[in-house]
Amino acid sequence: MVKTITILGATGSIGTSTLDLIEREPDRFAVVALTANCDVARLAAAALRTNAKFAVVADESCLPELRAALAGTNIGCGGGRAAVLEAASMGADITMGAIVGCTGLEPVMAAIAGGKTVILANKEPLVSAGEVVLAAAAKSGATLLPADSEHNAIFQCFDAARPERVRRIILTCSGGPFREWSTEQMRSVTPEQAVAHPNWSMGAKISVDSATLFNKGLELIEAARLFPVPNDAIEIVIHPQSVIHSLVDYVDGSVLAQMGPPDMRVPIASCLAWPDRMATPMAPLDLVAIGRLDFTAPDPVRFPALKLTRDALNAGGARPAILNAANEIAVAAFLAREIGFLEIAAIVADTLEGYDPAAPATLEDVLVVDAEARRMARRYVGSRGGAARG
Ligand code: NAD
Ligand code: MG
């Protein structure tokens, strides 16, 4: 049975890994639509290789270039937000949500409305609009599958029929490139240092999040959305080897873990084939070569993101959306060298302190909170960045 698939964010790290897997099994997957922001060369090449029906650039100014690249083919071209939403609404059996940031929220919602399978790599929509996303999936009957490696690990270990028998969820965290750095050392971290992750190769935004540990904080909120356990039953442990991707602890003392090489193609393949399995090109895990697995407690003093995210989760309402929006702005400012590495968490804290709207109830409410939090975070970037330069 051929499954049709649309990839939102097809040119990024997750999108490329997804294409790699489905192109190995052309009898199993047929591409409907591929979207990108503006990477026309990569998008057009992927559309041609997979014989996609529709290729979309979110940045409309890139549409003429896309049209030129696909001239003389049967592949339709689109540009702008409406075209991304159209791609997400084409009824593919599987939609991979691999756009980065909360800008992926509306496309993911459009895919969910179709009532088919939606794979969520794009974690920010779940953080900002968890209730809204889950309610939409319950309404349409869409199946949500988590591709984030930790959540995919939990999904594979979690006995969904007996959630009350789960005692704890343990999220593993590599610790990022600055796991052993002092706060003073982190003060002068450059974007180049922050995006060089020791274990994983990823897009720039999530790489910075992995260095501040905001990624683990976002994942804490993501886990709370996806799995029916109390917030305080979700723990984080530092595990530098990134071999155990997360664990589920049951009341009888059994702890189930999912292990695998640190390559996103493993959790993505698990989603693409679910509930079946499919082969990936990864070599079997060599435990003897790995030799040892280490675990330590995270340090909330050097990594304030952990407390900020835990507090936002516990407070609920608009807090996770504000936190996420401020972090997106702060990370972009750090990558643009407008602020220092430590200012990322400071700007998130400033924004959470300065803005306390009512809990958003609808998608539109979330988008309003997201936009206002971004506006405020930009202002704090201006004052903190200015102070840092002065
Ligand atoms: P990336 O930056 O490599 O790719 C992002 C994709 O989104 C690209 O195709 C880009 O063209 C597209 N895009 C960017 N801005 C857009 C916009 N405004 N409108 C429409 N499309 C836009 O990012 P990534 O590392 O592949 O991460 C994608 C998502 O998956 C993120 O939410 C990330 O947190 C999550 N994730 C990534 C990894 C990983 O290993 N890379 C692991 C777990 C979760
Ligand atoms: Mg992860």
From TrEMBL:
NADPH binds at residues 11-14, 122, 124, 203. Its cofactor is Mg(2+); Mn(2+). Residues 5-130 form the 1-deoxy-D-xylulose 5-phosphate reductoisomerase N-terminal domain. Residues 259-375 form the DXP reductoisomerase C-terminal domain. The keyword rRNA processing does not apply. Mn(2+) binds at residues 148, 150, 219. Signal peptide: none annotated. Pathway: Isoprenoid biosynthesis; isopentenyl diphosphate biosynthesis via DXP pathway; isopentenyl diphosphate from 1-deoxy-D-xylulose 5-phosphate: step 1/6. 1-deoxy-D-xylulose 5-phosphate binds at residues 123, 149-150, 174, 197, 210, 215-216, 219. Keywords: Isoprene biosynthesis, Magnesium, Manganese, Metal-binding, NADP, Oxidoreductase. Gene3D superfamilies: 1.10.1740.10, NAD(P)-binding Rossmann-like Domain. Catalyzes the NADPH-dependent rearrangement and reduction of 1-deoxy-D-xylulose-5-phosphate (DXP) to 2-C-methyl-D-erythritol 4-phosphate (MEP). This is 1-deoxy-D-xylulose 5-phosphate reductoisomerase.
